[in-house]
């Protein structure tokens, strides 16, 4: 590019000749040059702007297009960066203490219909009615030919039924995957497990939710994906539970009882090894709640946890143990048992007349109401209330079931002296068999409080002390004598050293006002083996009666005790308890010489 | 000098592009494989769950009790009772094995017994 000088010599000389100002020429050329430079830089700036604009345009288009695709496409989980185990997403199993399955899942299918897609609705309705007897062909046909676009037919079907529906060949009949909760053992431990049902349902999946028992209580745990399918371990032992149910069912029918309950508990940890309530149900096909009448007549009612009864003389040991703990009596103190004992307008009398006085051990062995009431008078209402509270009788059991809070003990409105006297022999305070089991466990295990639990206990926690070890031992010794020479003589099981206390309580009338003469709750609370208590077993029969030795008998000694003895005989070996054999001659070393 | 730099840079860019392309496809393949494996594991879990459920169902106490009763003649199974516990000293001590006979004595009756082994 040739550069034009600012003062071209030819024009300057010419201008000088003509007398013009040569600076004008310079200014003119300078202005021209500036104009060119201006044009050029403008052009360049325009070009840059264009490029920049294009770049921004492309960027916006790209981002916009990406946003559009994200908005219009189906969301997808990031596959490469999933944390944890994406496979185990189903509800966790429930297993017993040895890992045997109590509840698990089964992959099944649900059946639904798109009536609009059906070619031959009449044939489809006919085929379905043939496969599922409970479906009505006419109703199905009305649904298939009506306005509906979508229709659930069955929530879960078996593989055979699925194949049969396939064979109908209708394009409007569709299957969705569905998880089903299965209780393989049927009615075994039905009340504890509860049951499950479907929550939110969709075509692709459905939520399985617990409706009762531990299924409901641990719903969050069972559904928590963070557990990665770890099962819920219960304290139950399946074999023991099944044996206990069998024995209790047999006992219930022999004793013509309306219902029965049993609780077997580890005295140290409070683990419930078996808990039975009869009549029971199949959790795979959970019956509906009663809409009228007494809920306690429903098989869903858990007598061991929800049923609160006056448990009768089984309470006597608490009064005697507390009096021993307070130092008021010892095992050989003579107690006045002269009856009847009159307090205001109340008269307390015994089943038999036991004479003027008995030792406190014999008060328990012979089950004297008068003697226990006198001990309770020495203790006083406030201290008795506090002691029973420390054994857990004042609030519902803390067992891990949703039904537990409904088993609230019925306490006297005013805990007066007469209340203390009647409560000492088990009237005036209603509690569940589970309460009694926990309290007996505390008496038997050396005097520390036990909280009943349904979860397997890995590390036992020693509860607060409620009585001294010595008191606990002499209480168990008294209970042992009830079996060896008292009211529970039918409860002796060779080798297992059963210790226990019977209780026969008249049932209060539902309408209020007194008690039935011929309806009782018979209870046997037992501890075995007495020399080193390991387990506590409570057996309660509702309205038992048995015709033995020429008369109809209802007392616990004739009804609940034999059932409990048979249960211990069956369950003891299953628990791994070796029967204790009394060797007739002591082990000794004989010195010999020759 | 600058030209060489440009050529090298262009080659590096091309090389990186090729590497990224390959890595992308490898990743896609790995993801697909993981998805396949997940599906397989899921199916295996489902099958395992089904088998466990069936095992538990076939071993339910009611059924076992019925089977024990049905086959009582053959098996003679009874519920375990306290007398099932034994003591160690009730079991005989295992007998020592009989040492092989190295120097047999010939007996006159051997000639007859050699015909057939009575054992």
Low-confidence stretches of chain A: none
> Based on CA inertia axes, which overall geometry of chain A fits?
elongated
Sheet/helix structural class of chain A: alpha+beta
Portion in strands of chain B: under 5%
Radius of gyration of chain A: 42 Å
Number of domains of chain A: 2
Largest interface: A-B, 33 and 28 residues
Q: Separation of termini of chain B?
A: 104 Å
Number of strands of chain B: 0
Assigned CATH architecture of the largest domain in chain A: 3-Layer(aba) Sandwich
Biggest sheet of chain A, in brief?
Answer: 5 strands, mixed
Say what oligomer this is.
heterodimer
Overall pLDDT metric of chain B = 86
Provide a descriptive summary of the structure in words.
The complex is a heterodimer of chains A (594) and B (119). With 594 residues, chain A is an alpha+beta fold. In chain A, the strands form seven sheets. In chain A, strands 1, 2, 3, 4 and 7 form a five-stranded mixed β-sheet that branches. In chain A, strands 9-8-18-17-16 form a five-stranded antiparallel β-sheet, sandwiched between helices. A two-stranded antiparallel ribbon of chain A has the order 5-6. Chain A has helices at 9-18, 22-72, 121-131, 137-145, 159-168, 190-193, 213-217, 219-223, 238-254, 316-325, 360-366, 369-379, 381-390, 417-424, 433-444, 469-485, 560-574; strands at residues 94-95, 101-113, 151-157, 173-182, 195-201, 206-212, 232-233, 259-266, 272-278, 309-310, 334-336, 341-343, 346-348, 357-359, 430-431, 499-508, 515-528, 535-542, 546-548, 551-553. Chain B is mainly alpha-helical. In chain B, 63% of the residues lie in helices and 0% in strands. Chain B has helices spanning 2-58, 61-70, 72-75, 110-113. The radius of gyration of chain B is 39 Å and the shape is elongated. The interface between A and B is medium-sized, with 33 and 28 residues.
